[in-house]
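L-lactate dehydrogenase (Podospora pseudocomata), 214 aa
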Amino acid sequence: MHRNASVIRNVVKAMTPFRSDTIVLVVSNPVDLLTSIAQELAGLPKFQVFGSGTFLESVRIRGLLAEKAGVAASSIQLFVLGVHGDGQVVAWSSATINGIPLDKVLSPDTFGHQELAKECKERAETIFTAKGATPFGTGSVVASICASILFDKREVRPVSHFQPEFDCCFSLPVVLGRKGIMKTIEMPLGSDENAAIARSAHRLKSTIELTDKK
């Protein structure tokens, strides 16, 4: 963590000053910490500096749910939000299949929320153990983010970006376009989901303060 924080500081400082329309996308982990550092140092509008966040995890959880539900992953609307890693939160309360609430489509015994969220969280480790790296999943979401920006596609993606309430970056859905983050999407979340996101955000802010002292 401290090594990567030092690397991102050196890289961003070496790249400044940026052209005013530059968009900075942070992919390295811990992505929320490094995105927070990058946006602080870049001297760019906050909507032009963001990280890959929980986009890949959102793709994975939809794939896992699709297997259980017997529907195409593209028909599922479900996001992993918050601080990437142990603190990430699956937004089950707002999950839908083709716009229909999940609990109206699937019976409660189809799958377990906690078990599927745990499997999603551990998927990267499973792939790393088998292959030694996870480049294809990461490459696919980075390509998708870049395409959304370059072609002004206005797609909704969960990316790590600045949250003024917590003074750090973590993932919530945004609309991506040619100027970066065009707007954030306010999602109706359950009180437990909001509380979990807030707890992980406070921990992240404490971690950022520790790295600032190094």
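Helices lie at 2-15, 31-42, 55-69, 102-105, 113-131, 135-150, 191-212. DSSP finds seven helices and ten strands in the chain. ok done for today
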